[in-house]
Every structure is written in structure tokens, then in C-alpha cells.
Write a structure and sequence with these properties.
Mean pLDDT: 96
Structural class: alpha+beta
Radius of gyration: 23 Å
Strand content: 15-25%
Amino acid sequence: MNLQTKPTLPPDLLARFVAIVGEKYAITDPQAQEPYLVEMRDLYHGRTPVVLRPGSVREVAEILKLANETKTAIVPQGGNTGLVGGQIPHHGEVVLSLTRLDRIREIDPVSNAITCEAGVTLQKAREAAAEVDRLYPLLLPSEGSCTIGGTLSTNAGGVTALSYGIARTQAVGLEVVLADGRVLNNLNKLKKDNTGYDLKNLFIGAEGTLGIITAAVLRLLPRPRSVETAYAGVASPQAALELLGIATGRTAGGVTSFELMARMGVAAVVEHDKSSRDPLREPHPWYVLIELSSQAKTGLREVLEEILAEGLKRGLLADAAIAESLEQAKAFWRIREMFGEVQRHVGASIKHDISVPVSAVPEFIAQADAAVTKLIPGCRPLPFGHAGDGNIHYNVTQPVGADKKEFLARWIEVNAVVFDIVLKLGGSISAEHGVGVMKRDLLPNVKDKVALELMRTLKRTLDPNNILNPGKVL
């Protein structure tokens, strides 16, 4: 689609946009705009004539009505934690920040539902649920800054998707402002509603290209009465997968998280993060972080011990530690969460967010390692992530002493060999981070042709003037 963007706005039109939110909530100073224009990994830098920060759904609707009438491109933004450039104004679009829409409108523990505005942070939603003895199950390392609207717009995954599902699974109803300013009010709490199409799923994962999510009804769950966490050293991804099989068989759905980590990543965390220590006495080629949850107050630790004992008996693991306290469990999790942060200390990396069938995780890692080291001798593959649901963050680190810019210049080459393996194994080139601009041009080569045409038809129908996040996804 053609990008209908404007590097600047005529003064009279800019004044009309500013008047909707008030001067206090319209940012035109370049220095003050900076946090809205730079992606967290510093891969993308944008520009905008104004950042608008509406404080109500009515103001969002007025902004989009004016934008549609004047064909002014809008980039919606939540906490600006996206990793594929979908929230950045690459061509001078107006930024519409939703962080002021931060009210929790209702908590209904009987119906197991919470209604949040789009700017509510994930952490705030989880804390509000905990106050009524409920769990909002979506969990991401960026919970303190990512927003409910952003997690739904990108269909975020996270570390608990194995048991609880991704963002789409959590949404019961949505409120969405359409491109022409109309408001779709579908904020019901019903588990059963067969009155036509399930429209909410059009907007979840659409990255703001079809409408702007302003509020959502989200499902809540009973809080687990017991949680146990273990950190184990394993010989291979295949051994990890077999350990997962033991755990799921023993718990019947009680495996909340199952994270796979390569030794290189753990070693980097221990070296560069002063708060982290290696939980095991000896280094191991691979590690898994296992979390079990249960509604039973007792007995879960014994189940975890049985799982680890069976793994030890079968030769799947060499050593393991079970967290003796909440603080120790947090220390285990910190090692996993710091993987992204410490990678900058070991060199530039070419990153992939892929998924394959769970059974194919070991084969993917083996084939990808062989392919990228053949392409770039000396490069250091660093696979880690959500092995329990088949989502691997496959990062390739530059060879020791290599030139950073020359290495990163081969990003497309590395992508090609990795994605070829992903597709052969029946996987996806974007598991939980979205498409944005990073993977937009790859979509025609990997998406079903009919599906892609339907996506374009929906875009033309709901946003005929192409004002909503133009150039993203499609």
C-alpha cells in the first residue's frame, strides 16, 4: 500500500489536532518527543510533528475522525516496548499515545473478568487482579511498561503461554475506535455469545492497522495456591523436551512455564549481571527453568521432585535446584529475563522470534546451528525461550573480534537460512513479536496467498484512506 504520510502538518491542521487533547497533552518539542520515537533496542528512529496523548475514548475518536477527513497518518503507541518497529512513526506520522487511558473500569471476580483501558500496564492489571484473589495470567518481562492495548495489538505471548495461552486467549471483549472515528463497543463479559461474527479477533494482533483498541475485558483465573520452580542442567534440547513430557504427564496441565536456555547465555548473565549467580555447581550445555502451579496447597513440591528424579533416572538431566523461597525463584527467573539485556556485552546479534511444533524444537536448533555457522564461520548461535510452546528466540551472535557493522549487514542473509528451516518444519517466522516493518516484506513469501488477500481486503474495508499505522504488517 502507498504510504500517505506527511513529514509536517500545516499549522492550522496541527492546531486542530492539538485542540482536541489540549496543549498540555500535545508534544511538539523534539527533545520531549524522543521517548516516543526510539525503539527499545535502538533499531528504529522515527519523527513526528506531534505526539497526541488523549485522555478519553471521545478524544481518540475525534482524533481519528479528523485524521480520516484530512488523510493524516496515525501511529498508535502503548508502552513503546515493541520489537519489530510497529509503534514507530517512520515517515513523519502523528503519534497517538494511549498511556493516559490508564483506568481499570471494573473488576468482577465472580465473572472472573477485569475491564482495563488500553494504557493500563500489564503489571497494574496483574496487581489489581491479585487484590481480589485472582490471576491475570499473561506475563512478560516488560510488564512494568508494556500496556494492555499493546499486548493485544501485537498478540503478545510471554513465559506463561504454555499453560494459559497468548494475549488473544485472555480477551473476552473489546472497545475499538475505527478509522473514521466510530466506536465499536463490544465490552461484554460473556463466555457464550453467538450473535454473529466474533469481531474482536480482527483487531487482536493487527498492530493498530484496522482500529485502535481503547479498552478490553480480560479473563481472570483463580490464583494458584502453590507454585514451585526448578532450574535444571540438561544435555540437549531433546533431553529438555523429554523432561517436558514427564512434567506434563505428571501434572495434567500444571506446567506453567518451561524455558530453555543455552550455556552461552547463562554464562553471559552470570558474568555481566552482578545480581545473578549460577544456581548449579557445574556448567551444563543447556538449562531449563520449570515452573509448576496448582490449586492444591500442598503436594506440588513432591510432584516436582518426582519429575526431576525421573529425569535424573533417564539421564535427561545432570543436576537441578528447586527454589527454597520466593526470592530464590526470582533469582532463577532473573537469569532467564536478563538474556536480552546482557547480549550487548558479548557482541552484536541477529535476532529471530520463531515458532515450530514443540516436537520440532530440537531439530530446528540443530539445523539452524549448522546452517548459520556454515554461512558465517565463527558465529555463535544463542537459542533460548519458550520451548514448552515451541517459541524460540534464535539469536546469532557475531564471531569474536568481528566487525559489528559488517556482521549486522548480513542480517537478511542470516534471516533467509533460518526462516527456510522454520518453514520446512511447519513453523512461523513471527511467534510473539508481531510483523511491524521488520518482517512486513517477508510476509508475501510465507503467508498463504488467499489469507494475505483477505488481510488486504479487511484493511481496505476498515481503513480505506490508509491512515492507521500505514506501512506496517502489509
